[in-house]
Specification:
The structure holds 2 protein chains of 2 kinds.
Chain A (H helix, E strand, L loop, with lengths): L21 H8 L3 H18 L2 E3 L8 E3 L2 E8 L1 H25 L4 H4 L6 H4 L21 E10 L2 E8 L6 H14 L1 H6 L8 H10 L12 E4 L8 H11 L2 E3 L4 E4 L2 E6 L2 E4 L2 E4 L3 H4 L15 H6 L4 E3 L5 H4 L1 H4 L2 H9 L6 E2 L3 E2 L3 H9 L4 E5 L9 E2 L5 H13 L4 E5 L5 E6 L2 E10 L1 E4 L4 E3 L4 E5 L13 E8 L3
Parallel strand pairs in A: 3-23, 5-13, 6-7, 6-11, 11-12
Antiparallel strand pairs in A: 1-2, 4-5, 4-20, 8-9, 9-10, 14-17, 15-16, 15-17, 18-19, 19-22, 20-21, 22-23
Helix pairs in contact in A: 2-6, 3-14
Chain B lengths: L2 H33 L4 H11 L3 H6 L6 H9 L8 H14 L6 H17 L9 H22 L4 H25 L13 H13 L3 H8 L5 H9 L8 H19 L4 H13 L4 H7 L1 H22 L5
The chains are: A alpha+beta, B mainly alpha.
Chain lengths: 474, 313
Amino acid sequence: MKDEDIFDEMWGRHETLRQPYNLFKHWFDGEEPARLRAKQREAEELFRLTGITFNVYGRAEAEERLIPFDIVPRIISGLEWQRLSRGIEQRVRAINAFLHDIYHGQEIIKSGRLPERMIADNDAFLPHMIGVNPPGGVYTHIVGIDLVRTDDNQFYVLEDNARTPSGVSYMLENRETMLQMFPELFASNRVKRVETYPSDLRSSLSACAPPGAGSSPTVAVLTPGIYNSAYFEHAFLADQMGVELVEGHDLSVVDGRVAMRTTQGYQPIDVLYRRVDDDFLDPLNFNPDSALGVPGIMDVYRAGGITIANAPGTGIADDKAIYSYMPEIVEFYTGERPLLENVPTWRCSEPDALAYVLDNLEELVVKEVHGSGGYGMLIGPTATRKDIAEFRKKLRARPANYIAQPTLALSTVPVFSRAGLSPRHVDLRPFVLVSPQKVNITPGGLTRVALKKGSLVVNSSQGGGTKDTWVLED
Amino acid sequence: MLGKTANGLYWMYRYLERAEATSRLVETGQRIALTRLGSSDAEWRSILQTAGMLQSFEASDEEVTKDAAIDWMLRSRANPSSVLTSIEGARQNARLVRTALTHEVWEAVNGCYMTAREVLARKVGERDLPKVMGEIRQRTALVRGATHGTMMRNDIYNFARIGTFLERADNTARILDVKYYVLLPTVMSVGSSIDNVQWETILRSVSARGGFRMTYGNDYDPGDIASFLILDRRMPRSLAFCVGKIRDNLEHLCRTYGTTPESLARVSYIQDRYLTRDIDSVFDDGLHQYIQTVLSLIGGLGAQIEIDYRFYE
């Protein structure tokens, strides 16, 4: 792609500094590159000491690694954010309405807007949830919406993370690091606060407690344990919220409640923020081999004795095959046109779409319907012939397993490199909290950046880094 | 607090204490070997024995040499009490109980781990030994300092302290258990140079030389040494001191939780029956017999604490 094909969030398409970056650029020009490089190293040292690491699956030595941090912030104007957050709120409300409908009357199928097989044949659909009413009617207590940008006013939703979105600890630590390293930047720029996220999370979760819970519900975070790639985040959030971090073997069903084993006996839990997949949640009801979950928790849940956040079965809403129907879903439940666009998507299960995809593999991105983390995908324009030939075979063998999208010219934001400021592709994951009373969107989110020049893969497991994300008060 | 968290705190601080105890013994060995003529390998054998590591070392089929002994005590992953394994154990447990620790304590223990991994990445030569040991000692001291300076005095702190003092009592008792014979009052060898080395080893291995001199002057007497290490409540590694601390912390827990568990009865029994008497009566009972009894009572106390506070089930 040529340079002017790509929208840079600092320089636009034509090397004209965009307004939100004015003050930052002014500051940057006054800084010694050597000092900034030292600061960059200092940031890494800070992260290492704090232990902000993630474990990479599939590596021989299950080592902890740091996600690289870049000191140039990604800056969004207040007006841009206002537009975005309206679109996000609309989408999240639609997702919750959709989940309720899918597990109750299935009106959207009756209306013909969504083919029945999309639900019936979908592994992410959880029959155990049919007819269940989660406390407060909330399914997705925490959502991360992945956005990409291609132009001044053009954002697309790349993915909805409605199960257990991760990354919020990086959003918080990135800000903390920037505040410590460059306090002067926050004196000149008026940046909206993200630091309230943990207390917002706690009150949002508490507001979703079952009716019998009383005025200060007991909240706990359920983690698969210290070997999980996101363990740092689980511990971080529990710590910041001031609640217990529990594992499956700390929990038991006692007198019809889910309770944790404390030094003083069993104490019941009202709201469980689980970071364990549905399948592992309850060995009695789901995967019998799971050692991560709590036997019988689903029975307590169905009886209204505990809030599980996010609700089991929400995966149906962020399934990539369902994704392609999101515009219809938003319209069906809100009666409004979607404010945020979907990336045009070919469902390879449909013969016409498959034919088109097979003819145009060199230009498309092909993804597994159930994949995540940037694994098992093909990026046509940068793939080798061999990769493409292999994918062609896979597509023919199991077409329903794939979707395809055009390769978007993702926007870039500069990173600070040896050569000074160099553009790199980014995406954005804002975090959304849902309670019966409100939808709360933290201003900012996690900006992931592909550190390799020209690369479009921002996933941390594949060499991506992160940036602090600023939303300015206009 | 979760039972698992109590367990993790207890082990985090046990491992930390163990790392310090092992590194103290390495320094003792180094010091003794440097200042004595004759076979230093024999001295290292004695040090390994004092550390309770001679058996496991011999099982590894290596000859006892200075280098092999130092490496075994500092870095061997086959040795569950080496400085490196202990610090890794402390940090692993700290991750487990991350939410119970202050930011400062976590950073200190993580920093300690990073330093240990770095300075113990390869064999430590004799010349570098003092510097390496110094760095590790400083790092573990930081964890201790952060603990005292930033942690609430609540049940979290109690479990941390109980782990610390159980490990420490166990360490001191083990050193006494393998070295008891040099403390027996025999007319024959008192004052001989062999005994002097042995006594120095014992005192150094519990960082007690200065304290002992302050209390008793420059004359080493085996009875005084035994009394100092077992019964002296001013000496922070004596059995009486450690068991007293465990009791204090258990009493605090009882007040907090409003319960009176079995472990409190046990700790009171150990203290009242064995640690509030004079050293002559200990010798009358038989020093070795006495120490073995106390050692097994301390082991039983640890097991009872795990049950009382639901560490596992």
